[in-house]
Every structure is written in C-alpha cells, then in structure tokens.
Amino acid sequence: MDDENKGRDLDEETLFIVSQTFKALGDPTRIRILNLLFHKELSVNGIADTLHLKQSTVSHQLRFLKNLRLVKYRRDGTTLYYSHDDDHVMNTLRQTIEHACHN
Predict the structure, then answer these.
(1) Whole-model pTM?
(2) 3-state DSSP: the chain helix, strand, coil percent, rounded to 5?
(3) 83 contacts 71 by C-beta, under 8 angstroms
C-alpha cells in the first residue's frame, strides 16, 4: 500500500477482492492446492493424484482460484498446467503456515 492510500476507507471493489482472497485462504482444500502449486507446476490430474482428491473437486477449486487470479495455467497440447499467480498471497500463505508450525 502506498503512503497516499494509508488510513483511507476502502472502496467496495477492494473490500470484495480482499474478502474473496481470505475466503480462498479459509478453505483447507484450496490451501492444500495453493501450497502444492507454490512448490511446482502441475496438471489437474497431478494435483488430484498428489492430494488424493477427485479431479472434479480440483477443477472446481482451481476455477475459484483462477477467478481471483491466485493461480494461472499454461497449455501444453491438451493438458493445462497450473501454477501460482500472486506472490503477495503466496507469501502470506507461506508465512501463515510457518506461524502455524512454529511451537
């Protein structure tokens, strides 16, 4: 946040985006997917296999995350490979995981 926006009331669009981002980070399945994509790029099937989830579940969650621009994909033939798309949110997630693991 730049200095000129500090202390100002947030507009409705910003409030919505922030609340949706926290909603994304409030779901255990989405946290697992984002944490996995923080470390490597994977296809839907790769994510599903690694996390022992149904492919339809992964696709649904990726759609939600993609709409928030938290993940992106690239196409290789007929396969889509997903990776994280927001370093700010990923750093927040990483720090929160480290905080939770700290005893």
Answers:
(1) 0.84
(2) 65, 15, 25
(3) yes
The count of C-alpha atoms lying within 13 angstroms of the C-alpha of 27, restricted to the half-sphere facing its C-beta, is: 16
Given a contact cutoff of 8 angstroms between Cβ atoms, the answer to whether 81 and 73 are in contact is yes
| pLDDT tier at 30, thresholds 50, 70, 90 | very high
Asked if 47 and 33 touch (Cβ cutoff 8 Å), the reply is: yes
Contact 45, 55 (CB under 8 A): yes
Residue 84: name the closest of 100, 60, 68, 96 by CA.
68
Q: Report the mean per-residue pLDDT for the chain.
A: 91
In this structure, are residues 71 and 35 in contact, taking their beta carbons and an 8 Å threshold? Answer: no
